[in-house]
């Protein structure tokens, strides 16, 4: 993991993790709005963007690295932590392993139900079609699916050229096989769970399960939104939601 941060370390720290196939650049608009009041850290998940040379192993491995970073650089606790998609899975895993590592957590578009057949299909399919991710037309289709704004597409495409086949396979396997750790029920963190109204059923089911498992959590369904669309395309609304949550 590569950890990028704003210079104002004296302010409360918020850690934000990007989604799969993205990188810290996808959070720039959110960082710009928050950095006057907070110290923002935006880790680049293994296998992505500038950290493309570091093979992604698993969600649990990334959670371990994030906890080690917080222990070493943030006195073992931060003000808030947020994540999108696989970034949200990493945040969820961190909360499962540490009861009070952050005061607040924002978990957007998280999958906590294993998808049947992920292992059987992923390896042969990705070995066969890995070359497609290097094609701009295919990247355009993927970017649309991921709700990547048009002004971010070129950066998205350039980063897609850096991901290794093994990292891509590991990311897909870890994401599709992730199973919610029952220890999440012990967290002392105030948790906001976000899911888009127009996300597929398993994502809504995941959001409800997480809400049921975490005492006192808040479940917000973003009207008319698809997977990750709230933070990626509407950063102003996302930040307003965060600030409102912090005041509760």
Describe this structure as you would to a colleague.
This protein has helices at 28-34, 59-73, 86-97, 118-129, 136-145, 153-160, 165-177, 201-213, 229-233, 235-246, and strands spanning 2-5, 13-17, 39-44, 78-84, 102-108, 190-196, 218-222. With 248 residues, the protein is α/β, with parallel strands linked by helices. A 7-stranded mixed beta sheet has the order 1-3-2-4-5-6-7, with helices on both faces. β6, α8 and β7 (218-222) form a beta-alpha-beta unit. The mean pLDDT is 90. One of its GO terms (molecular function) is hydrolase activity.
Give a topology summary.
Blueprint (H helix, E strand, L loop, with lengths): L1 E4 L7 E5 L10 H7 L4 E6 L14 H15 L4 E7 L1 H12 L4 E7 L9 H12 L6 H10 L7 H8 L4 H13 L12 E7 L4 H13 L4 E5 L6 H5 L1 H12 L2
Parallel strand pairs: 2-3, 2-4, 4-5, 5-6, 6-7
Antiparallel strand pairs: 1-3
CATH homologous superfamily grouping:
Alpha/Beta hydrolase fold, catalytic domain
Instruction: Report the order of strands and helices.
Output: EEHEHEHEHHHHEHEHH
Q: How many H/I helical runs?
A: 10
Q: Going across the biggest sheet, name each strand in turn.
A: 1-3-2-4-5-6-7
Between the first and last Cα atoms, what is the distance in angstroms? Answer: 32 Å
For the record, the CATH architecture stands as 3-Layer(aba) Sandwich
Please tell me how large the radius of gyration is.
17 Å
Unreliable stretches: none
Helix and strand content put the structural class at: alpha/beta
- Mean pLDDT across all residues, rounded? 90
Give the total of beta strands.
Answer: 7
The CATH topology is given as Rossmann fold
Q: What's the number of domains?
A: 1
Into which percent range does the helicity of residues fall?
40-55%
User: Which outline best applies?
Assistant: globular
Taking the sheet with the most strands, its summary is: 7 strands, mixed
β-strand percent reads: 15-25%
Q: Report the top-level CATH class.
A: Alpha Beta
Keywords: Hydrolase
Pfam family, one: Abhydrolase_6
Domain AB hydrolase-1: 14-163
Organism: Ruminiclostridium cellobioparum subsp. termitidis CT1112
């Amino acid at each position: 993991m590569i950890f990028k941060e704003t210079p104002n370390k004296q302010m409360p720290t918020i850690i934000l993790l990007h989604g799969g196939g993205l990188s810290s650049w996808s959070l720039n608009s959110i960082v710009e709005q928050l950095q006057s009041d907070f110290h923002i850290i935006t880790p680049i998940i293994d296998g992505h963007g500038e950290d493309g040379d570091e093979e992604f192993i698993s969600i649990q491995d990334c959670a371990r690295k994030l906890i080690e970073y917080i222990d070493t650089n943030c006195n073992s606790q931060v003000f808030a932590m947020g994540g999108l998609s696989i970034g949200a899975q990493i945040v969820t895993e961190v909360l499962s392993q540490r009861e009070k590592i952050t005061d607040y957590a924002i978990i957007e578009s998280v999958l906590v139900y294993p998808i049947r057949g992920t292992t059987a299909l992923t390896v042969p399919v990705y070995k066969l079609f890995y070359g497609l991710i290097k094609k701009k037309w295919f990247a355009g289709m993927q970017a649309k699916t991921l709700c990547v704004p048009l002004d971010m597409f070129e950066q998205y495409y350039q980063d897609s050229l850096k991901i290794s086949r093994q990292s891509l396979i590991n990311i897909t396997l870890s994401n599709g096989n992730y199973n919610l750790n029952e220890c999440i029920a012990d967290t002392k963190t105030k948790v906001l769970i976000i899911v888009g109204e127009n996300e597929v059923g398993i994502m809504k089911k995941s959001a409800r399960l997480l809400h049921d498992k975490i005492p006192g959590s808040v479940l917000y369904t973003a009207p008319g939104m698809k997977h990750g669309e709230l933070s990626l395309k509407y950063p102003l609304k996302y930040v307003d939601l965060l600030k409102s949550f912090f005041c509760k």
